[in-house]
Design brief:
alpha/beta; 32% helix; six-stranded mixed β-sheet; single chain
């Protein structure tokens, strides 16, 4: 499933696959959905996987201003709220791991995995 989520500041591409507890996959710097898709494909039998192109990457719109890691975490939170998802399992690679750490420090998170 391909979707485009429009935040107050930008458009963001995301995919949702599978059913079960929600897992949010966040890619690293310079990557996109395709980098995390093999992980999502492996987990989608047991989990509801949400994968995004972070703003400024892949097919998501670039922010109009320079963003901090806190801006990225807030954007993820806005998307998850819009999708009625709370308490996700966050899995982040590299820069996505840094965003996941900030997200988990500010918002309810079931589990956190970074690599």
């Amino acid at each position: 499933m391909n979707d485009l989520y429009i935040t107050t500041t930008n458009e963001m591409r995301y995919k949702i696959i599978g059913e079960g507890p929600v897992v949010m996959l966040l890619h690293g710097w310079g990557q996109n959905i395709e980098m995390m898709k093999p992980i999502g494909d492996a987990l989608c039998k047991d989990f509801n996987i949400t994968i995004i192109d972070l703003p400024g990457y892949g097919q998501s719109e670039e922010p109009k201003e320079i963003w901090t890691v806190y801006d990225y975490a807030k954007c993820i939170h806005e998307l998850l709220n819009e999708l009625n998802i709370d308490n996700p399992i966050m899995i982040g690679h590299s820069f996505g791991g840094k965003i996941s750490l900030v997200y988990a420090s500010k918002y309810k998170t079931k589990k956190l995995v970074t690599f």
